[in-house]
Structure formats: C-alpha cells, structure tokens
Amino acid sequence: MAPYVALIGASSAKVSSSGASNGSGVRLFWLGDGVYYNVSGGSQLPLGRYYGYVRVRATGGDYAYFKRRVYNPDDSAFLNQENAWVYETIRTGAGWTYKGLIFDIDDDDVNDDIRFEVQISGTSKSGLDVDYFLLIPI
Q: Model-level pTM?
C-alpha cells in the first residue's frame, strides 16, 4: 500500500490555505480533530533514526493547542523519544512553523503502519492548519 494521509474527526477538512505549499492544507478545529500521514516501516521508511516534522499554523482566535506523536498502531507503541503525546501551543499570527520529533524505525516496525499524527487538544481558541509532514534521516 502506498503512503497516505487520513483525517480524524467530523470537522477535519481539506481547505485552501494561503502560504501552504500547494495552496491547500488540512484545517483542524474541534477537540479530537486530527490528521495523520501513514507509511509502512522497513519498506517505505527504511530502518534508522529520523526527524519527523509537521508544518502548522494557528488560524483565528488567540492560540491553537495541539498534540503530536509518531505511533505504531500494529504494536500499540509510541516511536518518538518522548514515548508519549507531545503537547504544543502556537499563537495566531505567528505564521507557519515546523514542529519536530526524533524517532527510530527498527526491526520491530518492519511491515507495520507508522503514523505521524497531529490532533487538536484542550480547548483550542483557534483552528490549526496542517500543511505537510517532512521526514529527514539523521
């Protein structure tokens, strides 16, 4: 199966977004809304250590509260070094920013789904635009 992007939550939607890489992105607004990028460990993403970045910005309101992780749903395992969700707050008007995590793909992850997830958390006063995910081998 090819890598793919999936939306989480009823109000997550692909939208036009100025400054986004292709002029569009995904807008998340309500608690639990999210998006993830899915690849297969070992074949689409070789064994090794990576930086996993997501490009985001807050839209409207004051702040956007969100969480992110790198996760293997086949093994129910976090892959990012924090071994947990990482919580973030970004201010509306700050523009696009990159948020990164370090993670490893090892023999246990071969042929498993690997997900780079972003979800709204807390009581967000703003929407969150997600532009793209970027994976860089270390």
A: 0.87
